[in-house]
Specification:
Elements: H1 4-11, E1 19-25, H2 27-31, H3 37-48, E2 52-59, H4 63-76, E3 79-83, H5 94-102, E4 106-108, H6 110-122, E5 136-138, E6 142-144, E7 153-158, E8 161-166, H7 170-189, E9 195-203, H8 208-214, H9 216-221, E10 225-232, E11 235-244, H10 247-265, E12 269-271, H11 277-287, E13 292-296, H12 302-308, E14 317-322, H13 326-333, H14 337-343, H15 348-362, E15 366-372, E16 387-393, E17 398-404, H16 410-429
Parallel strand pairs: 1-2, 1-3, 3-8, 13-14, 13-15
Antiparallel strand pairs: 4-5, 6-7, 7-8, 9-11, 9-12, 10-11, 15-16, 16-17
Helix pairs in contact: 3-7, 4-5, 11-16
Amino acid sequence: MKLEVLYNYIILKEKPIMIAEILSTGDEVRSGALVDSNSAHIAEVLEEAGLEVTRHSTVGDDLTAISSIIKEIGARADVAVVTGGLGPTTDDITAEAAAIAAGVDLYEDDSALLSVEKFFKKRQRLMNPLNKKQAMLPKGSKWLENPVGSAPGFAVKIENCLFFFLPGVPSEMKKMLSEKVIPEIYALCGGIREYSLVRNISTFGLTEAAVNENLLSVINDYPGIKLGLRATFPEIHVKLYARGKDEKKVSELLERATGSVLEKLGIRVLSTKGEPMEVVVGNLLKSRKATLAVAESCTGGLVSNMLTNVSGSSDYFLFSGITYSNDSKINVLGVQRAVIEKYGAVHEETAKEMAACARRITSATYGLSTSGIAGPAGGTEGKPVGTICIGLATPEKVKGFRFNFQFWDRLMNKKVFAVTALDVLRKELK
């Protein structure tokens, strides 16, 4: 069955913007045991494709509940993306629920079955008979190939909405969304599709409220721009959405609004591509053909972990030393005992020594260090919980910095300490 048959009815609807909804299924997602990252990704992709996502819904592994909400969505939306419940086990009931909502029976789709069989054959694995269940689709649906996993997806019209059912595994979902669903949505929109462009600007150094206050004028200054903020602690991401029928005008509007954001936030802007701190710093080091050595105390290797999570970090990252005790600072790094005895472990002078030693023993271009009080215990009046001292050794000089954050959660402090240290390096490299 050709997919065009399923969405011909929509093309006749002269709607400038198509409404989309997202449904996540599964007890793990409903209960919070599993974080629903799928919905956020799907929403972003659909918005960029020109659709307006109006609702995210979550429902557990309950046949009646799933079929009921599918019917509700079908009466409201033009397009819906549903994830989860396409596996071979007894709690995988999404296809059955879709059939109930559509008022049709399930049938064994030959193409879907063949794709499941090929999945196991390619991996030289014996297919369990239960996996045949994954080829059972609602009558009138069109199977969607899963190039990554065993569970085929499918598209089916229910009520007034075209539904795309995808696996819940993020890697499988993302692949199918980009390769199977989005091309169909572009065809679905036809000549009435509006262009929707999104700019993701990552920032650091201001609270979400402060960023919002700085950008209040953007909405008024640039009609047609929608502003959204998303906190990914401790970074704040600014989302600019521009929509219109003329792609060139939409792009120009987005560029002007982006320029305004950059002017208002200044050095606090990390990237206009939504890149996190560690990627930005890595790119700066790589562009300068510079190298880095890190000596950590309070962050316990978090700075190094962030940096080495970036592919290609071996081009610039030379050394990581977690010198948590004073003895290790002295005996491993070579920090002068007199400095620690005079100033203590948490002090700019000690941090400077740590950074300089890390740079010296590795011949790195830069040395970076952290020493602080992550809490919840250990603070004093002069050095309260949330105090972080950072050292930065450059080819020209050694600098020390002190910051204090008001978080009483140990992990939050460690995260903000690590990102702050990288931010010190970023500003030096700008």
